[in-house]
Automatic annotation (TrEMBL), chains A, B:
UniProt-recorded name of the protein: NADP-dependent oxidoreductase
SMART domains: PKS_ER
Keyword Oxidoreductase attached: yes
Keywords from the named record: Oxidoreductase
Lineage of source species: Bacteria, Pseudomonadati, Pseudomonadota, Gammaproteobacteria, Oceanospirillales
Domain Enoyl reductase (ER): from-to ranges: 14-330
Keyword field contains Nuclease: no
Organism from which the protein derives: Billgrantia antri
């Protein structure tokens, strides 16, 4: 059986050009004892992957050049020499960016038995959902009635953050750009604020109009002007969970940095970066709390789906154009 | 009896000119029931007072123009109509910037009975000392063996921070400017790094040379290049206590902001602003822990003393020239 997979030819500066991604194919060897062969059905592309394309070790190791790229994926076992798996089993693993994966069974997770579509375990019930839950509950210590601000509020993470926050009863404000994203937010009872055509000060003014008394929690996905505008609208004792700074991921110039960090002092605010992998032992807890709500249709999640392995790099690059709503996926 | 006191004529932009401070005198009325008259012996001037000269409410209310300025002071009761105080008692209060204060007895604190000079209750055992202890223990959660970085390390707060941190056994690095300050640090077993003639990157390199493995704790008194250099030298899970940002207090242009806030994310670091007043209920706890060490001579504290009420504004302005070592005081 053949596998087709993507590699990275070089570490990009700035936005990666499409040509850096190369599609290869290879005949797979017969399975060794303990190995499993999986036909992937869904691939995940995520902003954090840009960090792995830098060639610099940050909180994740860089992708190896000219080797199969990696990422979360869901698939069906087609052949197994591992006692815990047999053909037909659905599994989640990290050998994405390819159509057929061959792995030691020990690195596979069986999909949880819940009445939800498979791909939700890459999105609202996968890493992005767990990120939203962890940031709100474990980093920002969300409390009943908190006013919450979220940037990239209609993204894979942000769209769950706003819904989890809304359920706690405070005012929730989401920053987004495109008209359909703003509309989606308003439909869910979120005050939507567009960043378009606004500098940091103007965005700050718009946030003040949306929530006069300021924010207890800011869930940061973007950085740049969003962070600066948020820092001007904190309540005393505010907590900022820094989940991502996507506005900077493809930048090759130094950030200007927010001019108003002194607000951390004035408002005795707390700002903390986090990486969801550090909290993964809590995944069962998250799944128990959020899974049934997804199954009952109480949580609205959106997906942007590209079709076919060949489109994987395009799906990834679209993350940085603001072209996706909710989770960006590739269906094979 | 007359009192002489300073007022502020206008809210300054940038560094306050000396002429903004005006000395007045006034005949004091007879004491009302419950009032106490105090002849001040020591006045405190502190960087936070600059914030009260802005006319903008931040975490402290602005000074009222043309009214007596305020600040911590120590004095001796000369007359009392309050049952808890009598002539000769030593007290601490907030009616500084004057030679004779007349106050309700309820706002006076008797000086603790410890074998230390009176003025230590304005410095190492007063607000600056309590600030050092609170930032290290309650905000940065200092642990045994932590590597600690301190900016303005020979100042009233910093000089205690480095000694408390050093007692916990890790590497302690202090940033300062003048040669005598660097020398003082080295004499106390602190790795001293000069910020002079270095941009943020060069300062970061110097910090790396001083402590290869990076810092668990950064105690921030300065901001600007110090913060940027520190952000490049954090260990995973680092805690930054933001006590002050003195580099910005007299600035009338927007801060550039650190270009590398993304390190908060990479290192899952925690950054928190704090105001010591929020933690004042813990003062007895601090005094119990640090007081005996000061009395036994185990803590070295320095004082820079100006003589005479007339010099109070000059003492205050020197805080921003880096001219003081340790606590800046005025002796009356």
């Amino acid at each position: 059986m053949q596998t087709r997979y993507f590699t990275l030819r070089d570490y990009p500066q700035g936005m990666p050009p499409r040509e850096l991604f190369e599609l290869h194919h290879q005949e797979l060897p017969a399975l060794d004892e303990g190995e499993v062969r999986i036909r992937n059905t869904w691939l995940s592309v995520d902003p954090y992957m840009r960090g792995r394309m830098s060639g610099v070790k940050t909180y994740v190791t860089p992708f190896e050049l000219n080797a199969p790229l990696e990422g979360a994926a869901i698939g069906e076992v087609v052949e197994s020499r591992h006692t815990s798996f047999r053909a037909g089993d659905k599994v989640r693993h990290m050998a994405g960016w390819r159509d057929v994966a061959q792995l030691k069974g020990d690195v596979l997770e069986p999909l949880p038995d819940m009445d939800v579509p498979d791909q939700t375990f890459l999105g609202v019930l996968g890493m992005p959902g767990m990120t939203a839950w962890t940031g709100l509950n474990r980093i920002a210590h969300l409390r009943e009635g908190d006013n919450v601000l979220v940037s990239a509020a209609s993204g894979a993470v942000g769209s769950l953050v706003v819904q989890l926050a809304k359920a706690k009863g405070g005012t929730v404000v989401g920053i987004a750009g495109a008209a359909d994203k703003l509309e989606w937010l308003e439909q869910h009872g979120i005050h939507a604020v567009s960043y378009k055509g606004k500098d940091a000060r103007q965005l700050g003014d718009a946030l003040r109009d949306a929530c006069r008394e300021g924010f207890d929690v800011y869930f940061e996905n973007v950085g740049g002007d969003c962070l600066e505008a948020a820092l001007d609208n904190l309540k005393v004792g505010a907590r900022i969970a820094v989940c991502g700074l996507i506005s900077r991921y493809n930048s090759d110039t130094p950030d200007r940095g927010p001019s108003n960090l002194s607000n951390l002092l004035v408002q005795r605010a707390h700002m903390q970066g986090f990486i969801v992998a550090d909290h993964w032992t809590e995944y069962p807890h998250f799944l128990e709390e959020v899974g049934p709500r997804v199954a009952r249709g109480e949580i609205d999640y959106e997906e942007t789906v590209e079709e076919g392995l060949e489109r994987t790099p395009d799906a990834f690059l679209k993350l940085f154009e603001g072209a996706n709503r909710g989770k960006m996926l590739v269906r094979l």
